[in-house]
Amino acid sequence: MKFLLVIQLIKGDEIGLQARIIAVCDVWDALTSDRAYRDALPKHVALKIMEEGRGTQFDPIILDYFFSIINED
Predict the structure, then answer these.
(1) Are the CB atoms for 66 and 25 separated by under 8 Å?
(2) CA–CA separation, 22 and 5 (whole Å)
């Protein structure tokens, strides 16, 4: 039996809205949660790391909404 792996590169608005939202939330959770190999990062450090990914790793509009929610405290 042969398998064919097809990789389709998508970017920007080609990526579904739900996936762009989940990407931001998943990274936030990974950065701000204790892991076996490191303690959770402080909020300001996590925000800085995520800001560095604006437009390359994260949709800037989604990131703006996320930051507005996180900074409500």
Answers:
(1) yes
(2) 25
- Tens-place pLDDT, residues 5-43: 767 788 888 889 999 999 999 999 999 999 999 999 999
CA dist 24 and 67 (Å) reads 10
Nearest to 47 by CA among 19, 20, 28: 28
Where b means 16+ CB within 10 Å and e means fewer, 8-27 reads eeeeeeeeeeeebeebbeeb
Q: What is the CB neighbour count within 10 angstroms for residue 59?
A: 20
Task: Tell me 14's DSSP state.
Answer: G
List 54's β-bridge partners, or say none. Answer: 58
The count of other CB atoms within 10 Å of the CB of residue 50 is 19
At 35 the three-state DSSP class reads strand
